[in-house]
């Protein structure tokens, strides 16, 4: 099957992990035997003129057998999502006409995020009659829907309604988008279960005798720390270590806002039990997950939360908040689900994991946890779900054309 993917944001030379879940799904589809192509537009406002001038991405690239076509566009008149909508869509159509219209028989278009990949997919579909689907990931619908103008909301609604299928990464997110369309299916993000897996038997972990907790968070802005609940995690941690010295917390992730994390650590006097290890490449994230005893991230908002699945794929129980994403996959056998912003429940969950570790209880079985992650969220599992969805759409359209 020939699949065209349009991501709303995408990896760059400087930020190779940007939109990693889009790329990992593209790889999964490629590995499942599909022909996958990516079209993407890097849009810049005048505020980002320096980045626009210094742009160094290739317009054509073959990466692991996936053809990528991209271009940069300057949007000088309007800022924010309003100014980027038509510029993004125009660039997508231009790239399609230049590279794909007479070379590949694209059978389905898969856009990631309606703003503005989904809108662009709708415009391309109207021109080519190729059906399109949208997978929605954006937290704007969860956190800032009131900031979407009526004009933009109408464009968004149009793109959702005209899609052959809208995909959400969680059941809670499906309810959130229900006002736009009822034509929604839940399919989670891909987890790289080759990289994130059970540690090899006999591998060295350099572990001490303390129960180790791990959290991973991007720290470019303080808002990200709040979204991920790092503030309450450290506040609660101060109470935990005052009564139990046999625990330690490792925090992975880099960015300017890491200074705020250091401030909190100093404020609570917990530097002896908390270690900041800075930004991590994907292999190092997997390594840290294999070493820890529990992954904890009390996010206030998550549309999905692939980092929890990655930890599970390494056989680790997780502590997460029932904030929309983890509600679907955190079960009694693989972790503890707490109420968002509930410090008491967070503390109780951490204490519970620490007690299990200290008492040697066999509550969380690594093999069972890892198998659940693989069966439901591996590249093979997600590619199979998408394959079935694509075929049903194409068959339905073929039937309609025949009639």
- Beta content: 15-25%
Radius of gyration, whole Å: 22 Å
CATH C-level class of the largest domain is Alpha Beta
CATH fold annotation of the largest domain: Rossmann fold
- The strand count comes to 14
Q: With helices defined by DSSP (H or I, 4 residues minimum), what is the helix count? A: 15
N-to-C span: 23 Å
| Spatial strand order of the main sheet | 3-4-2-1-5-6-7-8
Task: Please state the average pLDDT score.
Answer: 92
- The secondary-structure class comes to alpha/beta
Q: Low-confidence segments, ≥5 residues, pLDDT <50?
A: none
Q: From the coordinates shown, what is the CATH architecture of the largest domain?
A: 3-Layer(aba) Sandwich
Number of domains: 2
SSE topology string: EHEHEEHEHEHHEHEEHHEHEHEHEEHHH
Name the shape in a single word. Answer: globular
What would CATH call the homologous superfamily of the largest domain? Glycogen Phosphorylase B
Major sheet details: 8 strands, mixed
Percent of residues in helices? 40-55%
